[in-house]
Amino acid sequence: MENDVQLVACKIESEEYAIDIRSVQEIIRLLDITRVPYASPFMSGVINLRGMVIPVMNLRKRFKLPDRAPDEATRIVIINWAGVLVGLLVDSVSEVIRLPRQAIEHSPNCSFNINTDFLTGIGKLGRRLLIMLDLDSIFEVTLNV
Amino acid sequence: MDMSQYLDIFLEEAREHLQKLNEGLLELEGAPNNRAVLDEIFRSAHTLKGMSATMGFNQVAELTHEMENVLHRLRNGEIGVSSGILDLLFKCVDLLDNMVGDIAGGGTGNLPVEDLLTELRSRNVVECSESPRNIEPESGDVSIGETPVSQTMSHNIVTSVEFNEYEKNLIKQAIDQGFQCYHLVVNIDQRCVMKSARAFMVFKNMEEIGEIIKSIPSVQNIEEEKYETSFDLIIISREPQEVIRKGLVSITEVGEPEINLITGVFCTLPALEETKVEEPKPVPAPSPAAVSVEKPVPDEKTEDHKDGQSHPHLKPKASQTLRVDTTRLDSLMNLVGELVINKGRFEQIGRTNQSPDLAETLEQMDRITTDLQNVVMKVRMVPIDNVFSRFPRMVRDLAKDLGKEIDLIIEGKETELDRTVIDEIGDPLVHLLRNSIDHGIEDPSVRAAAGKKEHGQVVLSARHEGNNVVIEVKDDGKGLNPEAIKNRAVEKGLVLPEEAAELDESSLVRLILQPGFSTVEKVTDISGRGVGLDVVKNKIEALSGSISIESNQGAGTSFKIQLPLTLAIIQALLILLGKEIYAIPLSFIAETTSVMPEQINKIQDQEVMLLRGDVLPLMRLHEVFKVPLKEVPKEEEINIVVVRKGEKKVGLIVDTLIGQQEIVIKPLEKLLGNIPVIAGATILGNGQVSLIIDVAGLF
After folding, report:
1. Could you tell me the CA-to-CA distances from B206 to A20, B228, B237 in Å, in that order?
2. From the list B675, B682, B688, which residue is nearest A32 (CB)?
3. Which of A117, B331, B496, B605 has the smallest C-beta neighbourhood within 10 Å, fewest atoms?
């Protein structure tokens, strides 16, 4: 068991991404997002999470994928990133997955058609491939003023 | 005894005493024969010595000990107060300050003290015999008010019964109302097989006589027979002791109880002694609660009794205060903020429902929340003296270094400000003071030649003005030279020569607040270290304040800082841009007005309008915030919010004015921080997040 990691699997476009469950505080449905001018284009804005004002990042835009209108499946994954709460806007959240550590390949030597800057590895679950998100690099945001 | 829990108190009190030492020494410098001041200094040094020795900070203790010896000799008149000695003592205080800083940073406070020790000792060599070499705090060699902390730490306290705040209150109220409060030790026969049944009967009997407010161990544990042969009860009753005794011994297998009367304890004074009425009877078995006269530990955080009981006439300000962890205050403030938000939500519901009952209740609730908010706000208020108090020393040192003679006059140090503002305002003030002393006040010879007093004067004052606090740093120095500023600004490329020619005097003077400006060629280590007054300006604006300058060439300069009383909850005007709601802090708003589209003119690409004969530049907030523009029919009136910063005014074009509302400011965290025109966010009554416009950032 100790050798397993628990991951929250979420989908963007057709790719499946995985976030270490220890960084995930909660998963919520889409709330009203207030746009923040002058923020980076991939920052959707801020939401009110039970009295806290929390920034939300649009992962599609972060990955430079075409934006699309939110639907029923759209979720915000609230991440606790070193004490700071940040929301990640994703197309859908599928499940929580338990994966043995050895099933994660840390330096994939094949090239994917995704931006490798944001991944720490690839998890293999049967025939499914999970892209392990690198939160640190995702949140490395420079202001777009 | 583990001392770490006392570290915070130690640090806080140590800083207080260091501050007192600094103040005392300064006062002594002005009045060398003031015995009372000397006593005060001595007392602080002594207390500091005791505290640090108890906490195991021996270097601090040793240094203060040697200081104390010198002070002792000063008091006895064996040596006179000279500037040499004062400088030495000041140096000691500085070192102590560093040591305390080191301790605060997790160090041991062991900094090199040898030089100062040798110097101090050399002042003492003449007569060493009478110096008390005992560093122990409990030595009691001097009859001075020790701080409660050292008492707490030094006494070995046997606490057999601890009461929480609620229980303390209960007991206090009961006593006030003429009840008796007893501490019973109920002894049950060792051979008893049904201890729980006996205990039940004890409880039953006692409940007939009075009220049981506490039992040790807990009722549940007693019922489960988790006790040896005795347990403790605290009961409140009107009955005399004998009745209680009878009520207990009447039960089989219950032995002679031990009954102690608890009298007026748990008040605010340090001596919290419980009086014992009856000598304890021999207790048959070792009980967990061998009652001894106990001294409840004064709650470290809730009590702050200042020293000086022995010299009350010297300490008129021994106020009864609580010492509360600031994080608790912050969370209290947050909760009140939440309440205010929810109140707003209620009000919205009330408006849509239009029920008179609801409206009435809401009005009531509104009043209560407003009061609550004011109280919480007041609790967070700190007198600005906390910041001001360190300046006399700084000014003295600076003046000495520069060979200038300066009187610092402090006014309104009791003015209160929110703690968050207090924390931030120190550095800008240091900067302004340094600036005044270094650049403002002239050398004594120059002053004499100009027909001024040789002593320069710097006035640091604080006062309330409406919902703002105004802090002023005023000197009677040479004032600013607008011509020199103009040349400098042009030379530095801050303004174009033709622009500069058109600026009036007050605008010229404001140029010194621009980044990259510094009029003095010579870079001293006092001010002008590459960072200029623009840093001050930025800091003040970050606190939602403003700064203005008045200068009279030859007669002096005055910097006026205007700050809001608090930063957490403010009044704001909500406006609509497209579909987005924004909040503008009311403190920046001069007025609101409206114009017809044809009244807007253009001067060199800048839209302007005439407001009572003055030209008012306009700014389309849609453009600033990149909001999709609403199609405005030509003939519709345009709403304008006139905002000001210092003397400058700008008209902001908005779609709709929604109304004035109290808002709770929530900062935008990391990922969205530092956005220029946004000061933060707030949550509206309907739960929606709205952004607060940083008006200062618009100019």
Report:
1. 58, 20, 9
2. B688
3. B605
